[in-house]
Sequence to fold (666 residues):
Amino acid sequence: MLKMLFTPIKINRMELKNRIVMPAMHFLPSWDGMLLPHHTDYFVERARGGVAMIIIGGCTIDELSGAVDMISVRDDKFIPALSQLAKAVKAHGAKIAAQLYHAGRYSHSLLMGGRQAVSSSPVRSKFTGETPRELSIPEIKQVQRNYALSALRLKRAGFDAVEVIASAGYLISQFLSPIVNKRKDEYGGEYENRMRFGLEVAKEIRREVGPDFPLIFRVAGNEFMEGGLENKEAQIFCRELEKAGVDMINVTGGWHETRVPQITMGLPRGGFTYLAQGIKQAVSIPVMACNRINDPFLADQILRDGQADLIGFARGLISDPELPNKAMAGRFQEINYCIACNQGCFDTLFDRQPVTCLVNARAGAEAKLTIEPAKPKKKIMVIGGGPAGMEAARVAALRGHEVCLYEKNERLGGQLPLAAIPPGRGEFLTFVNYLEKQLSKLNVVVRTRTEATSLNVELEKPDVIIIATGAEAVAPNIKGADRPNVFMAWDVLSGKVDTGSEVIIIGGGAVGLETALFLARKGTLNPETLHFLMFNQAEQVETLNTLLYRGLKKITVLEMLKKIGEDIGPSTRWSIRQDLARLSIKTMTSATAREITAGGVIIDREGTEMLIPGDTVVIATGARPVNALYEKLKERVPEIHLIGDAKAPRKALEAVAEGLAVGRII
Fold:
């Protein structure tokens, strides 16, 4: 039973109907800073879903604060569109706020019309590869004024509150942190001086908007940067923010440059709640906890334990806009939980693409991808129970079609259960469980352990067939690939086979690297044992580090390309490479396997042949579509569709999107 999540709370004089807030996420491109129709569709769907407050943004405050395709509040010309959005959101009972954004040295000149970024000091940004120029004192005052004027525009537009981002390594962080702030004037040096810029921003906004307009600051509970600020310094800053007139603190994790994962599925659910707890103990104003909180029960427990006063459901409301309403009604089995894969919501940013979501392919295109009742209703046969087939079956059944799904294996999910096996990847099963429950709720007939044939088609007599038979692993044409010590990666992950102690993995893409991490963890300490040993001080820290990072196997990954993990999204790739190094997994790029022998693999590396010793070889060189049934049936049935990996092996993101697409049109 949820005891606190749906209780009201006041921020200044604004009352929220529950404790669920959608934090700002820059996912939807604009045009010259203007709000566009798809923004309204996106936010209104979340407001309709029962969230208490939506924070849009980040929103640029001047021409140097962010990319040209971000929403902006830098001029009065943006007020009419902002006002329309505010009215639309508030009509559904949600409050609306906007985040004032200045990236400082994180702004790239190419995204600001060639302008050079600004910062507290001219320290090169690893994030952009560029060096900003230092803000002068008059420029500092102007930037602070820009924050205040932007806040006033939001108030005039009918917004309920304003938030300032002072985290993630953006401009206010750049003044706070000794990593970047090298100034010798009143804005540099001791921490008291480094806090001055952010505190003056808060005071300037408060003077402009008056005492009753809620002011929120988003802070880093820990920068997670070498030489950076920790929670104890964040507490000091937040106490001073409260004195400066701030009404609420939104606590997140570290900078974009940190080597500590912030939002990937490797971070446990609610893993940074302790940061909000530290801030809450230091202030008397409401505090919000964020990062990987997507479960209403976890959120409610955080509130009940007194770790925070509000909960930021960010990507959890991308994956399921109806999450609050479902939780309030006790429909927990129907929630489509965020799995923190980052494929649609974060990796797309690197390609300047709008938001989407692996588990909710409608995200970002709500008005375009509506799901309407079917006319006429048809009998649908779906062949293949991976993510593409399950999503197609779900959407077709939701529209009223009669749907039957065939899956030759014992369980549904396709490759997702395999993807969930490596450490820290278990959330993939969350989506499989959701789809299974939806198929049951929608009365889809599911036949597992049944391989569909032409005879099944004749017996079913479907109006439409959807082929989603997935892909199969490909063995490379290498001499010795048929040796008894050679296994496919999928068989290793599924536990069908065991490896020796010296393993060579051929293929440095996602499957190969995740298989390497899976094998490297064998013999290392699991979280429960590590906690037990640390709590009881049973081992020295140095011993625990050894036991945590050193397992039973010596692993080498061979990749013929110049880089490993090129098929992994950029938001996750760096952390996987980091884990490989920590677990002492050796990677060799530009290495082409020529022959597998009894003693290892002979490779060609830049014209030089060498033997890589090993007792087991694991093949992870890709997959090919399984679509023979489609080829057999395509001329014999009135309507047939080929989707997912059966069409071409790709990511689950594309598979689910194709499942939605075909389910909508039949």
Observations:
- The longest strand covers residues 53-60.
- The chain has three domains: 18-351, 386-472+647-665, 486-621.
- The CA atoms of residues 417 and 429 lie 6 Å apart.
